[in-house]
Amino acid sequence: MRNLLMTVSYDGTNYFGFQTQPGGNTVQDHIEEAIHQLTGEQLKIHGSGRTDAGVHARQQPFHFHTTSQIPVERWCLALNGRLPSDIRVLTAQEVPLTFHSRRSAKRKTYRYSINGNRIIDVFQRNYQFHHPGKLNVDAMQQSLPYLIGTHDFTSFASRHSTKASHVRTIYDTRIVVDSSGNIPGTTSQGILHFYVTGNGFLQHMVRIIMGTLLEIGEGKRAPESMKTTLEAMDRKTAGPTAESKGLMLWSVEYDEITG
Predict the structure, then answer these.
(1) Residue 29: pLDDT above 70?
(2) Which residue from 150, 147, 153, 152 is spatially nearest to 174, judged by alpha carbons?
(3) Where, in this chain's numbering, is substrate bound (predicted)?
(4) What is the CATH number of domain 106-252?
(5) Sign of CA dihedral 40, 41, 42, 43
(6) Which residues form the catalytic set?
(7) CB-based contacts of 191: which residues, under 8 Å, 6+ apart?
(8) Binding region for substrate
(9) To the nearest whole percent, how much of the chain has pLDDT over 70?
(10) What's the confidence (pLDDT) of residue 182?
């Protein structure tokens, strides 16, 4: 028996998220079917986490146990030849049988992208939330330090969350403004990329944080409201859940993996 760790990149526009759902058409479903076509095995892969419908991934790890003896260096091309064009396996390696892509993860980073320009980018429309109104980026930046540290994030969790604990640790948050694509002669704010790194995230957590940040940027909330919302531990005190298409799982980090 072998334990293979792979990373996958996907455009989540046409899928119901990563994890298998009763209605099918998830990234996991397609990967498992590709493995079945390749090896004849009916198996379950284990992702580093789940993503919502419409959410994308730059690098999402997953692992699975297999009896196949296909050399590890051949897996990526073999699977990609059996996967839809918007799902691509990037890397593959053999890891100890005790390794688990979710339980072994130490840090995860998500990116949420906001198009702050007046006109939507037709080429990036599936990967950015379009907000043509002016946002106060300084106010948004001022609210971010309140999220750093270990807190109960109940206010920023879906009401349907089934987790026993909503305590998570956020290590870093930042907003990067990219104005390189601004069209001369237009009122453009550029693309705002919000990055957040933590030891784990709750259902809809990043999207609810983003909905709250957007209200701060619109002047509907003060930057300090991020602190009071966090302390309230009440979903009703936070902003709306931001659209899924602007969210991307950016990276997942592990300690050094040794055999």
Answers:
(1) yes
(2) 147
(3) 110
(4) 3.30.70.660
(5) negative
(6) 52
(7) 113, 114, 115, 116, 117, 124, 128, 177, 178, 179, 181
(8) 110
(9) 98
(10) 73
The domain segmentation of the chain, as residue ranges, is: 2-103, 106-252
What digits encode the pLDDT tens for the residues 66-115? 999 999 999 999 999 999 999 999 999 999 999 999 999 999 999 999 99
Regarding pTM above 0.90, the answer is yes
Residues 6+ apart with CB under 8 A from 150: 167, 168, 169
* Matching residue, tokens 């659209």: 243
Three-state helix/strand/coil letters over the chain: CEEEEEEEEECHHHCCCCCCCCCCCCHHHHHHHHHHHHHCCCCCCEECCCCCCCCEEEEEEEEEEECCCCCHHHHHHHHHCCCCCCEEEEEEEEECCCCCCCCCEEEEEEEEEEECCCCCCCCCCCCCEECCCCCCHHHHHHHHHHHCEEEECHHHCCCCCCCCCCEEEEEEEEEEEECCCCCCCCCCCCEEEEEEEECCCCCCHHHHHHHHHHHHHCCCCCCCHHHHHHHHCCHHHCCCCCCHHHEEEEEEEECCCCC
Instruction: Give me 100's structure tokens.
Output: 């688990």
Categorize the per-residue pLDDT at 24 as very low, low, confident or very high, splitting at 50, 70 and 90.
confident
Question: Are residues 112 and 206 in contact, defined by beta-carbon separation less than 8 angstroms?
Answer: yes
The pLDDT, as a whole number, for residue 84 is: 98
* Equal fold, 2-103 vs 106-252: yes
As given in the structure block, the two tokens for residue 103 are 């339980």
Structure tokens, 241? 């859940």
- 50-54, 156-160, 228-232 — most confident range: 228-232
Q: Which residue ranges make up the annotated binding site?
A: 110
